[in-house]
Specification:
The chain is mainly α. It has 2 domains: 22-176, Tetracycline Repressor, domain 2; 178-305. It contains 15 helices and no strands. It has helices at residues 23-28, 32-48, 55-79, 81-84, 102-123, 126-147, 154-163, 165-174, 179-202, 204-210, 215-219, 221-239, 241-245, 250-272, 281-310. Helix 3 (55-79) packs antiparallel against helix 8 (165-174) and helix 9 runs antiparallel to helix 12. The longest helix has 30 residues, at 281-310. The protein is flat, with a radius of gyration of 21 Å. The N and C termini lie far apart (56 Å). The model is unreliable at 1-9 (pLDDT under 50). The chain binds protoporphyrin IX containing FE and farnesyl diphosphate. Residues 33-34, 37-38, 41, 89, 143, 155, 158-159, 162, 188, 192, 195-196, 199, 291, 294 line the site of protoporphyrin IX containing FE. Converts heme B (protoheme IX) to heme O by substitution of the vinyl group on carbon 2 of heme B porphyrin ring with a hydroxyethyl farnesyl side group. This is Protoheme IX farnesyltransferase. GO terms for molecular function: protoheme IX farnesyltransferase activity.
Length: 317
């Protein structure tokens, strides 16, 4: 089925050009693979918050965060269609591939943003809805339209957008922002540079071709590698804070410490990688491990919380 079916020559009643896009193309606009981890961290925020949300409302909250995150991805793809068309990694995305028009992606992104924020506010609470709206705005406008093409610190500041989801999940349950949700935010915020610059190192040519000032292109490989090590250390330190605060067990702290040491170890491998290395194997491994790392940290926090809440170990560690 296509959107064209009721329209002559691909024009809608108001003259906007429509493509022959299918549901799959619109689904791709939501950046589903990246957003799956975003939604997972939001779910963790919901689980880790004190108190509980009615299961139906919890499901609505997660759905709204998933739709809002996807909407911000569609808005990012609408604005970045010009550079996505040039980079090999992104050239097959729905807009540069000619499957979805820019207007469709923009309308889709705006509609889903309004829908997700509105439903979250009406069904759950307006603090979480406000945070969701701010996160969409931060990623689509502050990061995509402003920082990304302007400064090599784009992802350090812009990374805040990806760090908000657990705070949104937490606020959905408690109606508040607390120090514990700020710590979840900080783990992702400090993780993002190491996650992204590892990828940017082996995609330097792509970013160079479109003039996006990613750190490896502007500062060079050496300073980028140093920054990757610094942020990996900060991430590892931040991820054990819940144990020190007593909101997670010592068992979690030890697990997070091992994962963190591995994160720093991968970063050091990147640091020692020869300048100009064509294959960039350590950077590719670091990028892959970064995803596993965040997934494991949030899984461990949730498992620890559930074990402590239901007394499976018969008490605190
Ligand atoms: C400003 C912040 C971030 C930047 C610039 C960034 C950048 C990227 C890029 C360019 C990719 C490759 C995507 C592709 O080609 O499809 C990627 C992959 C990925 N990112 Fe990030 N990322 C950021 C934050 C996050 C956050 C906050 C999460 C989750 C919490 C995340 C999770 C992922 C995942 C799961 C993948 C792998 C997707 C796949 O398997 O194709 N990223 N990231
Ligand atoms: C709830 C909510 C709104 C969540 C949003 C979460 C968020 C901001 C995730 C960032 C993920 C991401 C792929 C960034 C890369 O953007 P890019 O444009 O630099 O990467 P690209 O070149 O692959 O498009």
């Amino acid at each position: 089925m296509t959107v064209l079916e009721n329209h002559d020559e691909g024009l809608s009643d108001n003259g906007v050009r429509l493509s022959e896009a299918g549901a799959r193309d619109f689904f791709e606009l939501l950046k589903p693979r990246v957003m799956s981890l975003v939604v997972f961290t939001a779910f963790a925020g919901l689980v880790l918050a004190p108190g509980a949300l009615n299961p139906m409302l919890a499901a609505i909250a997660i759905l709204c965060i998933a739709v809002g995150a996807g909407a911000s991805g569609a808005l990012n793809m609408w604005y970045d269609a010009d550079i996505d068309a040039v980079m090999t990694r992104t050239a097959r995305r729905p807009i540069p591939a000619g499957k979805v028009t820019g207007e469709e992606a923009l309308a889709f992104g705006i509609a889903l943003s309004c829908f997700s924020v509105g439903i979250l506010g009406l069904a759950v609470n307006w603090l979480s809805a406000g945070l969701l709206a701010f996160t969409i705005f931060f990623y689509a406008v502050i990061y995509t339209m402003w920082l990304k093409r302007w400064t090599p610190q784009n992802i350090v500041i812009g990374g805040a957008a990806g760090a908000f989801p657990p705070m949104i999940g937490y606020a959905a349950v408690t109606g508040t922002v607390s120090i514990d949700s700020v710590i979840l935010f900080m783990i992702i915020f400090l993780w993002t540079p190491a996650h992204f610059w590892a990828l940017a190192l082996f995609k330097m040519r792509d970013y160079g071709a479109v003039g996006v000032p990613m750190l490896p292109n502007v500062a060079g490989e050496g300073p980028t590698k140093v920054q990757i090590v610094v942020y990996a250390v900060l991430t590892a330190l931040c991820s054990v804070i819940p144990s020190f605060r007593g909101t997670a067990s010592l068992g979690y702290g030890l697990f997070a410490a091992v994962l963190g040491i591995l994160f720093v170890w991968y970063a050091l491998k990147v640091y020692r990688m020869p300048e100009g290395d064509e294959k960039m194997v350590p950077a590719k491994k670091m990028f892959a491990y970064s995803i596993l790392y965040l997934f494991a940290i949030f899984s461990a926090l949730m498992a620890d919380h559930v074990i402590r809440a239901y007394g499976v170990t018969g008490g605190a560690f």
